[in-house]
Specification:
eight-stranded antiparallel barrel; eight-stranded antiparallel β-barrel; 16 strands; mainly beta; flat
Length: about 350
């Protein structure tokens, strides 16, 4: 619960310290779609989920520099309900933070949201052993949507329709954890509680040409995870990274670096595999540590930034996963030099860890 409280605090940061001239709106979306199985052991979990997403948003109008830089996005909180119409999966709930970014004269909306999920019917050895997607009730929830929107179709009432991709997973904090992806049709209504307000540029010019010298980053990420053996127990991991980044405009920076992985759940897993699968000729004392090199991209919004990285293991004596790994996450910059982060490290669609990090940027 302590880790989940940290996530909720982290995703709530965008709503602190905002100015009162932002306006309020609500979005109600009805969802219907399909589960997308990404491993063979999920085929029996296919179905046609339906649900509801309720979003409370603040509409920006230019009182801060980042509003104009991102074409006056919305920010807010959401509540999501999803019924998988599958006896093994049950239902999921999600709550967290969102951004709506606009294109095509504010008719095309890109929705990005991240929060905490809760599954009503997780894996249970006796009563629900076929649910290989959710090893625990509490998980992370991620959503991406591409939606056509009419904000004021009749007065302050509008209409929207599009597509939503949803993901529920506990990041292998407890096995099993294949996670579930869904592709949903999204249709709903939106309503502005305030009078229509004209968007204006901030008195401070947008920093379009913001260029910084190369910065040096030191990041320590940690958390708990479990090996793929169900019931093997949760162990702490420590991922230490060093990388350089180059910010070349207002929004973007590129990264290049290396990192060291101490994933303690691998220790027992190596011993287990050496005994359970003697045909592998696996030495039980095989080194569990890994070293990777990676490249990444960071998108700066305000104090929040979005981060994506792709890496390759240059040292991994225990070759359980593929050599490529990836990471997506959020950062909150307390100061120009100190930030905290929340990220998901995966091997393609298979999550390895939910990482909570602290970084220094010099």
């Amino acid at each position: 619960m302590r880790k989940l409280s940290f996530i909720l605090l982290f995703v709530s940061f965008p709503f602190f310290g905002q100015k009162n001239c932002d306006t309020d709106a609500i979005e109600v979306s009805f969802l219907q779609g399909n589960v997308i199985p990404h491993t063979k052991d999920l085929y029996h979990l296919q179905g046609h989920p339906n649900g509801l997403m309720l979003s409370f948003v603040k509409q920006t109008h230019g009182n801060e520099e980042w509003h104009s830089a991102y074409n006056f996005p919305d920010y807010g909180i959401y509540f999501q309900y999803q019924d998988y119409n599958n006896n093994f999966l049950g239902k999921c709930y999600g709550i967290g933070a969102l951004y709506n970014f606009y294109f095509l004269n504010r008719h095309l909306e890109l929705k990005v949201s991240q929060g905490i999920g809760y599954a009503t019917n997780p894996y249970e050895k006796i009563n629900n052993s076929k649910n290989k997607a959710f090893g625990s009730s509490f998980m992370s929830n991620t959503n991406f949507g591409l939606i056509y929107k009419e904000e004021h179709l009749i007065g302050n009432l509008g209409l929207h329709a599009g597509f939503l991709f949803t993901h529920f997973s506990n990041g292998r904090t407890k096995s099993p954890n294949s996670g579930i992806n869904s592709f949903l049709v999204n249709v709903g209504l939106n309503y502005d509680f305030s009078e229509v307000k004209i968007n204006t540029n901030d008195t401070v010019a947008i920093m379009k040409n913001r260029i910084e010298p190369i910065k040096y980053n030191f990041v320590l990420r940690s958390g708990y995870n479990e090996s793929q053996v169900i019931g093997s127990g949760q162990h702490p991991f420590y991922h230490a990274s060093f990388f350089i980044d180059k910010r070349f405009n207002r929004k973007s920076a590129l990264q290049l670096g290396a990192e060291f992985f101490l994933t303690n759940s691998f220790k027992d897993y190596i011993k287990y595999k050496s005994i359970a699968f003697p045909e592998l000729n696996l030495d039980p004392n095989t080194d569990y540590k890994r070293v990777g090199i990676f490249t990444g991209y960071e998108l700066f919004i305000n104090k929040i930034s979005l981060e994506a990285q792709v890496g390759y293991y240059v040292y991994r004596p225990f070759k359980e996963d593929i050599a490529l790994y990836d990471r997506v996450g959020f950062k909150y910059h307390f100061t120009p030099k100190i930030y905290t982060s929340f990220s998901v490290k995966t091997h393609m669609f298979l999550a390895e860890a939910l990482e909570f990090g602290v970084g220094l940027r010099l």
